[in-house]
Each structure stands twice: as structure tokens, then as C-alpha cells.
Amino acid sequence: MDISNGELVALVWGGLPLLGLLLWWWNDLWYALPLKLRHSPTGAKLPPGHMGLPFLGEILTFLWYFKILRRPDDFINAKRAKYGDGVGMYRTHLFGSPTIITCFPGVNKFVFQSDETFIPDWPNVDIVGSSSIVSVHGKSHTRLRRFVENVINRPDPLRRIAQRVQPRMVAALESWAHKGRFKAYDEAKKVTFENIGNLFVSLEPGPLLDTIDNLFDGLVKGIRAHPLNIPGSAYHHARQCRKKLEDIFRVELEKKKTQKEGVTNDLMDGLMQIKDDEGNRLNDQEVLDNIVSIVIAGYSSTSLSKMWALYYLAKYPNVLQKLREENMVVSKNKTGEFITSDDVSKMKYTNKVVEETIRLANIAAFVFRLTTKEAEYKGYRIPKDWRVIVWIRYLHTNPENFDDPMCFNPDRWNEPSKPGTYQVFGGGSRICAGNMLVRIQLATFLHHLSIGYK
Ligand code: HEM
User: Fold this and answer.
1) Which chain regions cross the lipid bilayer (predicted)?
2) ipTM of the complex
């Protein structure tokens, strides 16, 4: 059969819209349609949403809201406007996977608490460490969690940690005052890492600590990189950094074994010495993997929270003034050079500034999970092997949960937040294991900042 040129042009022009439509619905046809055809026995349906183009999914729309408009939560607002609120769940396709986004308190809580169904989704477990708290599940996780919390998040260690971190904070603030202008994040990172070196392995600032800092930088860049193990890739570099870090920490660990117990009383000592109820200790690899993962979890989060505190206080001088008034009183009444964790617990306004900084900074904007078996929430299905993105920052920027949410207003904490609307540290069995540690660090930092500087 001969096709004339005219017919060919008509065919192409007629076919193009069809092809466009096919591409536009590709992921819905590929992932959602087969599930819709296989009805759930309970009649539950997939959450509403659009899964977008092949491979790309909705990543271009996501980048539009994040990088161009710089209003990340409008990605969710657009879905609410288009598909309705439902239970705060939408289907999409992001970062190469079919995904369910959750963004309301109830459904987020459901995901956090169903920890056998929704497991943390770390792509490169070998970089984080396969026996680290974030990589293990079930009973192994409960066991490790107890060790880690007992060393960094309980009143006794926090009392010691509060004392250990202050000298470097005070020195850093003095040096910033001399500099006049400085980059807040870089300087906050520097003092945070000096304190990490001191807290974890009793290291003083110097070339070894700088090397460790650079190695962590390389390691973190590889955590979510494509696992392509060839020279030049972020993943390959991260593996090398991981190896070198392990070598350095192993030397420190061996040194400690020959020292008398408790000589330095740092976190590596704590993790080496602590025993569970059966009298068992962590093995060397568990100690190393957990030091690495706690530093990963705590380093940039603590630095960012200090940076945002500086930013908000510069923008809201009335808050700085109230902070100063409270802290001057504490400063006059304190016995030694530094405040204690008991002082911190009495600093009511300072603790509200801490909470408000963490709420508005949204340092952990999302939490990722992988669905190990099909789940159902209030009539909606979450299919097996799909990813779940718990969009926690949406809770904190949503005016239905917080009045005038983008305003930095520590006084909003005069009343507790509405139930379930404050999930900065996640929830369930994996709620942040360093939540009290970061709070005490931020409060002591605010104390020294507000009593000495404008
Ligand atoms: C403002 C600062 C911080 C924020 C907003 C934050 C937020 C979070 C969130 C949302 C999770 C849950 C992740 C998930 O469910 O998958 C988490 C877990 C964790 N965080 Fe933090 N974090 C902060 C600081 C810290 C610090 C300072 C440390 C320790 C030095 C730390 C250690 C951890 C650890 C070990 C986990 C894993 C817990 C587990 O899997 O059981 N975090 N954090």
C-alpha cells in the first residue's frame, strides 16, 4: 500500500497528540493500572495522583516547585487543589520509583508506627554501615537503639555532653566577633565538628580532625548516589572515604582497649563499654558503624540548626532581646563558667526558641520508607515495593496546623501544638535518637550567644 506525503504528514500530526498522551500517562498505565485491575479484597483504592512520564515521573514538577519557585510545599498544595484532601496521601513517581506521598498527621503517624511494613530506605547501606542503627530492622534495631540512646540521649550523658560542648562554642563565638563578617553555615559546621571530634573520640582540633571532616564530606555525598563503583563516581569516592574513616576509628578503638576503662569518657568509650540486659556489649564493627551513622545523622543537622538560629535571631531582634533577658538571669545565678543541663531545663523561653527554630528550619524535610508488604490506610492502598515519602515539613508550614506558619514566633509554644502536627524528629520506633542532644546543644549555644553578642 502506497502512502502519499500528505497522508504521512496527517498521520504524524494525528499521532503526535496520542503519543504525548501515552507518555503523560505512561507511569499510571505501567504501575497503577495493573493494580486497579486486580481489585483489593477490601475495596481499597490507590490514593489519587499522577505518576507522570516514563523514568522521570513527576521529577520536573518537583524541581519546578523546589528550585524555581522555591516553594516546596506548593507541590503538595497543588495536589490538594487538584485531587482534594482525602486522607493526605497522593500517588506519584519520584526519584525513579512509584511513590506514595503522605502529608497529614494521621497518615504520617500510621507510616512511622507500622515499622515492619515501612522500613527505612537507604540505597547504599554499605556506605552507612550494615550494622548501624539506621540499617538494621526489628529486634536488631531495638537492641542497637537502646545502646545508642543510652550513650547520647539520656539525662546522664546529656549532662556530661552539655559541659563538653560549651568551651568550643564560647571560643567560636569569640572568633566570629573578631571576624566581623563570616559565613554562618561554614562556621557553625566548624564548631560542630570540633565538638563531634571531642565528644566521640576525644580528638582536639588539628590535621587528623580536618582529615576526618573531609572524609565525612565525601562519604555523605555517596549515600544517595547511584551505586556505580567506578573511579570518579560519587559512590566509589564515598566507599574509599568510608574505608579510610574506618581505619582511623579502628586505630582509636584499639588504643582505647589498652587504656584503662572510662579514661576519656567519650562516646566511643560509651559504645564500647555499655552492656545490654544480658550483659552483652557491641562488637567492634557495631561500634564503628554506629559512630559513623551517628555522626552522619548529627553533623549537618546540628550545624544547620545553629545556622538557622543565627538567621532567625538576626531577623527577629525582639526575640533576641527576650532571649537575652532570660539568659542574663541564668548567667548571674550559675555557679561555674558554663551552664548545666539542669539550668537548660529551667530556661523556658530559650527552649521555645529552640523548638521554633527546629520547626521552621525543617532540617529533615522528608523521611523515606520502602513498603515491604501491601498496606491499607482508611480505604487507600499502599502497594508493596513502592516508596513512601513522609513529607513532614508540610505539617510545620501548613496554616491549618500553625497560625502564620512562616513567622518565627517562639511564643506560639506557650500552648502545645495540635496533636500530631509537630513531627520534626519523625516518630515511632525510629524517632530521632539525638533529639535531646541537638536541643541541649542549641540551648547552650543560644545562651552564650545571647548573653555576649548583638
Ligand atoms: C535538628 C536536628 C535534627 C533533626 C531535625 C533530626 C531529624 C531526624 C528524623 C526525622 C529522624 C527519623 C528518620 C527516619 O524515620 O527514617 C532521625 C533519626 C535519627 N537521628 Fe536525628 N535529627 C536531628 C539531629 C540529630 C542528632 C544531633 C543526632 C545524633 C548525634 C541524630 C541522630 C539520629 C539517629 C541515630 C537517627 C536514627 C534513629 C533510628 O533509626 O532508630 N539526629 N532524625
Assistant:
1) 7-26
2) 0.99
- Dump the DSSP string for 232-282: TSHHHHHHHHHHHHHHHHHHHHHHHHHSPTTSS--HHHHHHH---TTS---
The arrangement of secondary structure in 125-452, i.e. its CATH architecture, is: Orthogonal Bundle (1.10)
- Give the closest residue to 214 by CA, choosing from 187, 190, 231, 233: 190
Grid coordinates belonging to 171? 571560643
Q: Is 432 annotated as a binding residue?
A: yes
114-171 per-position pLDDT tens digit: 999 999 988 788 999 999 999 999 988 999 998 899 888 999 999 999 999 999 999 9
Residue whose CB lies within 8 A of the most ligand 1 atoms, among 102, 113, 133, 301, for a mutation test: 301
Return the ligand 1 atom nearest residue 426 CA: 10
Pocket of ligand 1 (CB under 6 A): 120, 133-134, 145, 148, 152, 294, 297-298, 301-302, 305, 358, 363-364, 367, 424-426, 430, 432-434, 437-438
